[in-house]
Every structure is written in C-alpha cells, then in structure tokens.
Design goal:
Length: 315
C-alpha cells in the first residue's frame, strides 16, 4: 500500500535535491540497521534506484524508529494500513519520532508463511509492480530511508519510511525562555490591512479588526493598505478608527543554531507556514522562538516560489 505526502504552501513548487552519489559500501557501514533483513530491503531499493540514475538512499534512524513502531502496532492490534485506528498518519508518526522534513512517504507490505530470507526481495519486487509503491521507491526527492521488518508467528509486516532531506539545517537545539510578542488589533480599517515584518508581508486582516496575531520576535513592524496597484505604508490609525497594541511577555521556547548552505531561503513560523524572513546562504544563524509559535519552517526560495523542506517543532 503506497503513501506519500508533499506539503506545498503559498504557490510552492517542488525543487529536486541534487543526486547523492553514494557507494553501496557506505550504506552498510552505518551500523544503524536493526537487522540484516531490513538492511537488505535498503540494498534492494538502492540497486533499483542506481540502475535508473537516481541517488542511493541513506539509512535514517528516526524514520526507522517510526517504521518499527508502526509495524509493531499493526501486528499487536490486528490492522493493516497507513493510518492508525485513531487516524494518525505516516507524517504524524515520523514527526513524533523526530523527523523534521516535510517530504515523507511510506510503503507497506504484509506476508504470511514466507521464510524471512525471501521477504526483502519479494517485498521490493511487489512494490515495483504497483504504481503507487513504485513511485515512492523511485522518487527523486527522497534521500533517506528507514525499514522495519517485524514478524509475529507466521505474519510479517514490512514498513518503508522515506524522507527527503536535501540538507540538515539544525546544528544545535536547546530549551530556552523566549520573547513572545502579541499584536492586538481592534476597530475598523478602511480596507484590508497588511502586517509587514522587515518589509515582508506577514499577514492580511480586516477590515473589521478584533483579533490578535503572534509575531516572531525581533522584527520591524509596519502596516499597509493595498489600493489595487500595490501596498503603501499606513501609520497606525490612518484612514479610520483602528488601533494596534503590542504585548511582550516571556514564554518557554527553543534556541536554535541553524546552518544553511549556499542559496536563498525562507523562514516561516506557525502551525502552517506564515512567511517571516529571507536568508541568503551560506549562513549560520541563531534564533530563539517561543513554543507558542509551534513550528519554524525552513524552505528554499526561488523567485516567488518556496519549497518548504523542514518543519522544526518549537516545543
């Protein structure tokens, strides 16, 4: 059963990562695989990818953790599917295991009565004969893989968890107190009000205002209206009876040290990405954000298109 998830936001388009030219010998030197059978599924998968000019997948311990948990849960509770009986998806399970990447996928296989030695090759062959599974096996955006092969009596479940990791931005992550900034807006604006941070549009609200927005700390705040030709700066209260008030407090959060390779990047915050700022790499930066913002998103920026690749939890 195939499953793949691609979260694209704000007119985003996929940007394929560069191919990983990895010798198969390196894949067997990590020591992270739980069993030779699971590592054999990885090897079989990479043989197919390399034969088609695709990059080999590297073993990923976090994806493996999620795969093992799902395989054990399916056997223990007697179901077979990508979503748990409670509705938990592959993406949610991988995020809970510590995977921060946005591009993830999953393949499943179930067998009864087959000897262990036959299962890796059979599973990969069966997936290749299914269009959805095949698409995951040969997806160019995927760079890492975790495989679980779990037996319970005559029953065997195989789970492949795929991850697209073009780069790993997090150098260091520690708990910290962070500044929390709330913008309270009230009254009636003459039209749609734009909230700008460092001259970048962060949100559009109004015209009736009775709400609060949480802002990332340390940004220069401005307001604007759109007259149909573009945005123009609007000092607080201009053009009608609307008011703005900032409330700054301290809240538990996360201090992050990020390393971005060469290129242009977008940072966003929120449960869904709300664009915050641009960064030109290579760059190492440190940010401290409150947990109430939920996530820091990192994406590649190409013109007006953003491919968000990482979603880093702030709690």
């Amino acid at each position: 059963m195939p499953w793949a998830m691609r979260l694209l936001w704000d007119r985003l388009e996929a940007v394929k990562p560069p191919r990983l030219l990895v010798l198969l010998a390196l894949l067997f030197s990590t020591g992270l695989a739980q069993s030779a059978l699971e590592l054999e599924v990885l090897a079989q998968t990479n043989q197919l990818r390399l034969a088609r000019g695709l990059g080999a997948l590297l073993w990923d311990s976090l994806a493996y953790k999620a795969a093992v948990g799902h395989a054990q849960d399916m056997l223990a509770r007697g179901y077979f599917g990508h979503d748990t009986p409670e509705g938990r998806t592959p993406g949610q399970r991988m995020a809970a295991a510590g995977v921060t990447e946005v591009v993830v996928g999953e393949n499943l296989a179930y067998y009864e009565g087959y000897p262990d030695a036959d299962i890796p090759r059979k599973a990969v062959q069966d997936w290749m004969n299914s269009p959805g599974h095949r698409a995951n096996l040969l997806k160019g955006d995927f760079t890492h893989l975790g495989v679980a092969l779990v037996r319970q009596g005559r029953k065997v479940v195989v789970v492949q968890n795929f991850v697209g990791r073009p780069f790993d931005p997090v150098l260091k992550r520690t708990s910290a107190q962070a500044q929390r900034t709330l913008l309270w807006l009230s009254g009636e604006a003459p039209g749609t009000l734009g909230i700008f941070l460092d001259r970048q549009l962060f949100a559009q609200v109004g015209p009736r205002l009775d709400l609060s927005l949480e802002l990332p700390p340390g940004s220069r705040l401005e307001y604007g209206f759109n007259d149909g030709r573009g945005w123009f700066v609007a000092p607080e209260g201009q053009g009608g009876g609307w008011q703005a008030r900032l409330e700054v407090t301290q809240a538990p959060g996360v201090a992050l040290r990020l390393a971005l390779p060469s290129g242009q990047y977008a940072l966003a915050v929120g449960a869904e990405p709300r664009f915050w700022r641009r960064v030109v790499g290579p760059e190492t930066l440190e940010v401290t954000l409150p947990g109430t913002l939920q996530f820091l998103w990192v994406g590649r920026l190409q013109g007006q298109k953003i491919d968000y690749t990482h979603r880093i939890p702030l709690r």
